[in-house]
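Entry type: protein chain
Record version: 2
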Amino acid sequence: MITQHTVTVNGMRLAYKVSGPPNGDPLLLLPALGECAGDWAPVREVLDRERRVYAVDLRGHGRSDRPGEYSLELMRDDVLGLLDALGLDRVDLVGHSMGGVVAHLVAQARPWQVVRLVLEDAPAPLPREARAPVRPEGELPFDWEMVLAVRAGLDRPDPAWLAGLGRITAPTLVVAGGPTSHVPRESIAELVRRIPGARLHTIPAGHLIHATAPREFNAVLTEFLGDPRTPERPGVR
């Protein structure tokens, strides 16, 4: 059963969904720009069989607040606040695209807290050519101002983020979407090169790997995460 929750962190309401056994090892899922916790539905049924799965609506998305102040650093701090509020001392962390950037910023900030890290078709924090996004018509499930702010951060990332990848201590799996993804292969390769011991697995499904190829993604992910019933990792609520 999936349950909906909110918690107040950094003065704003952050929404998240929880499923899986209460004593299961915690797994935190961070979605891509413009996506919400429900985006993980194609793979969640497998992931939460033995794990306690938390899927987050990052600030400006879904049921979380739209405070009007946005950056990747603030999203990182929101995730850290969520971990503190829920008492999650050690987690496996999975992030897709923008969520992958937030995930590696979390792993840089608190390397001791991330047990394993999975970055799904996420770019390395390298400068890129800025392209003005076009706002979709109608009501959006996210704040458009958030898109503009986050895109600016992705186009011109803090140089410290690239250097900080070397501080990550969690075993890291980088899952690439192959030649049809818009994320440059050179960017993916730099991410793998910079994170100590990171390994690369390519699923040629394009950028939306877990939605387009859920079986392949789940197989790779569950093999990497291993047996969730490890005695050295205490269960959490």
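Comment: The beta strands are 3-9, 12-19, 25-30, 51-57, 91-96, 114-120, 172-176, 199-202.
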